[in-house]
Design brief:
This is Heat shock protein 12B. This protein is 29% helix and 28% strand. With 691 residues, it is α+β, with helices and mostly antiparallel strands. Helix 9 crosses helix 10 and helix 9 crosses helix 14. It starts with 37 loop residues before the first strand and ends with a strand.
Length: 691
């Protein structure tokens, strides 16, 4: 059985300030008080740049999956023709008046937990079920939000279906990814003249930039479970940050492919001439998209677009990815002439996506009809509840500033009937008693929401977005930005466009790509073709490990004092790997060297701690939390056998050095290790899901 040692507060020892002392661990305290299992030999104070040869993989095609809160889709490009991006086949079904560029992120499982359908098919199949039968099926909608909101995400985290039944979240995500895998491979095969092997596909999955390492690892594990790639080929899968992907595509845009809101000053929802509604230009662009939606091939030039020709080295811009669940902001700086990008400020954002408007609508229904009734209706008539949310979604997309007439939202008959049975009065009576004058009842079975009512539903979410962007622009690193790119599905909303222009238009030019809902998807393909475009990123957190150091009287608190073999040690000191908002370039690594604590040790486990700030000294400080662990498998490297064989020489364990290299400049944290004595690779892994 493997001898797994759990490191904690004093599991590492860093040489003290006395530089004349040997770096050998011979002077370290003997194991006790949470037994030491490793000792660092060569701590390094900061990341260093290491030129590493890139492993050439024979990828023939890059496939990107934009896994969104409300809608998802895929696109791909053959590496021999990287300037052509193929969008997925148009989905069947959908809502009238909505261009179905992607599929709703909806999943349906049978009562025995088998996959049934995804997207429009899942939604329509669930709708057609008998109400009693539907209670036994598992329908999941907007389930991506769970990953963002769960602070203790693990492989065992569960999702609750609309009917109340629960299943492991990793299985739900794997079902969805497996669905995309089967569809995209069939489509790629149809367009490829040669037989495609599994290892010839590079996969890219998009995630919000504000997601932390556990959520990113969760998506990777779901991809492994879905069969996209195997854990033995991790480089075949890339995790792309959504606003970063959008930024890559925005580099390619030409002037005729964007709407520049700054060129249309807004007064009371109309342009300066007062004759054209604010959103008319966008409606025109969207109509153009609808006409051309059967054309699924997009060409991107090898160079950069006309907007970029205006930009010079050092120019800054913000990309705001306004999606269904979250709003993500990234700040980039142009590096000419190579055209690479440098992140200027750590990714920020929050749960300010379009779902916030849906939640406001649900809260309004609770206020009118009672929260207990709404919860009961959702549980007893889940399919009808889905119908109601679909009806609201369709009307939400048509909301625009300056609109005078009301928006009609059809209530399902089962809602009207269920309310009368539940409350003993009509829906019309409930509306009248609610004193909500901006919501009326239509005899045709519809809620009539006035412009004021829609405005109230949108404003809390939009205000959060505007406030966040304004606060970001106050940061020293973000001042003097030239452009603000609005991307993502929520960026289609004229309500958000008007608010952004009114609040932010004086500070920078606000740009919206015509195909705003597909910007991230196309950019993710470009990222898969060249993951090195973003050369420098900012670290979102401070990362480090707990170590022992020489105790200094007056500097270290007495409660951290540990005396062993006559020497005084300070426990729980944080040895930083990187600091929050630190610039880390591609290729920069953090190195630590460790030695096994005893003969025959098979594994080294190193706890990782993180914090939102850099003003910390100990792993017990407020705001510091254990977030993951690095595991070094010594058995496979031969280190165990070598240590055991040399132990009679007296100091073999101390000489056995395991050199660990950590990389923080990519979208995920990566770790590799090598046994210095044998030159063999040590199986190293980093886990953020086992807390």
């Amino acid at each position: 059985m493997a001898d797994v040692l759990q490191l904690n507060t004093n599991s590492l020892q860093v040489p003290g300030e006395d530089r004349s002392a040997s770096t050998s661990p011979s002077g370290s305290p003997s194991p006790s008080r949470n037994e030491c299992s490793i000792t660092p030999l060569t701590p390094s104070p900061s990341p260093r740049t290491e030129v590493r040869p890139r492993v050439a993989r024979p990828f023939s095609v890059v496939v990107a999956i934009d896994f969104g809160t409300t809608s998802s889709g895929y696109a791909f490009s053959f590496t021999e023709d990287p300037e052509t991006i193929h969008m997925m086949r148009r989905w069947e079904g959908g809502d009238p008046g909505v261009a179905n560029q992607k599929s709703p992120t909806c999943l349906l499982l049978t009562p025995d937990l088998r996959f049934h359908s995804f997207g429009f098919a899942a939604r329509d199949s669930y709708h057609d079920l008998d109400p009693e039968e539907a209670r036994h099926w598992l329908y999941f909608d907007k389930f991506k939000m769970k990953i963002h909101s769960t602070s203790d995400l693990t492989m065992e985290t569960e999702l609750e279906s609309v009917s109340g039944r629960r299943v492991r979240a990793i299985e739900v995500f794997a079902h969805a990814l497996r669905f995309f895998r089967e569809h995209v491979l069939k489509e790629v095969k149809d367009q490829s003249s040669s037989v495609l092997e599994g290892n010839e596909v590079r996969w890219v999955i998009t995630v919000p930039a504000v997601w932390r390492q556990p959520a990113k690892q969760f998506m990777r594990e779901a991809a492994y479970l879905a069969g996209l790639v195997t854990p033995d080929s991790p480089d075949q899968l890339l995790i792309a940050l959504e606003p970063e992907a959008a930024s890559l595509y925005c580099r390619k845009l030409h002037l005729h492919q964007v709407i520049d809101l700054s060129q249309r000053p807004i007064i009371n929802g109309l342009d300066v001439e007062g004759s054209h509604p604010f959103d008319s230009s966008f409606r025109q662009a969207r109509e153009q998209l609808r006409r051309a939606r059967h054309s699924r091939t997009f060409l991107v030039e090898s160079g950069t677009g006309e907007l970029w020709s205006e930009m010079q080295t050092g120019d800054r811009y913000i990309v705001a990815d306004c999606g269904g669940g979250t709003v993500d902001l990234t700040v980039h700086q142009i590096e000419q002439p190579q055209g690479t990008l440098k992140e200027l400020y750590k990714a920020s954002g929050g749960p300010y996506g379009a779902v916030g408007v849906d939640l406001a609508f649900e809260a309004m229904l609770c206020q009118i009809f009672g929260a207990d009734f709404i919860e009961s209706f959702k549980a007893k008539r889940p399919a009808a509840w889905v119908d109601l949310t679909i009806a609201f979604e369709a009307r939400k997309r048509t909301a625009a500033p300056g609109r005078a007439n009301s928006l009609n939202i059809s209530l399902p008959f089962s809602f009207i009937d269920f309310y009368k049975r539940h409350r003993g009065q009509s829906v019309e009576t409930a509306l009248r008693k609610s004193n909500m004058n901006f919501i009326k009842w239509s005899s045709q079975g519809m809620l009539r929401l006035s412009a004021e009512a829609m405005n109230q539903l949108f404003q809390p979410t939009i205000n959060n977005i505007i406030k966040h962007v304004e606060n970001l622009m106050q940061k020293e690193e973000v001042k003097d930005v030239r452009f603000l790119f609005l991307v993502g599905g929520f960026a289609e909303s004229p309500m958000l466009q008007r608010a952004a222009q009114n609040a932010l238009g004086r500070n920078c030019r606000i740009i919206i790509p015509h195909d705003v809902g597909l910007t991230i998807l196309k950019g993710a393909v470009l990222f898969g073709l060249d993951p090195t475009v973003v050369r420098v990123r900012r670290c979102p957190l401070t990362y480090g490990v707990g170590v022992l150091n020489r105790f200094v009287e007056g500097r270290h608190p007495r409660d951290k004092l540990l005396i062993k073999d006559g020497r005084e040690w300070c426990t729980d000191i944080l040895d930083r790997f990187v600091s929050v908002d630190q610039s880390v370039a591609l290729g920069e690594v953090v190195r630590r060297s460790y030695t096994p604590a005893r003969m025959g040790q098979r594994k080294i486990i190193i706890n990782i701690y993180c914090s939102d700030t850099d003003d910390i000294t100990y792993i017990t400080d407020p705001g510091v939390r254990k977030c993951g662990a690095i595991t070094l498998d010594l058995l496979e490297s031969g280190a165990v056998a070598a240590s055991a064989g040399d132990n009679d020489k007296g100091s073999a364990i101390e000489r056995r050095e395991i050199r660990t290299t950590m990389q923080f400049g990519d979208t995920e944290i990566k770790v590799t290790a090598v046994d210095v004595a044998t030159g063999q690779l040590v199986r190293a892994s980093i886990d953020f899901l086992s807390n």
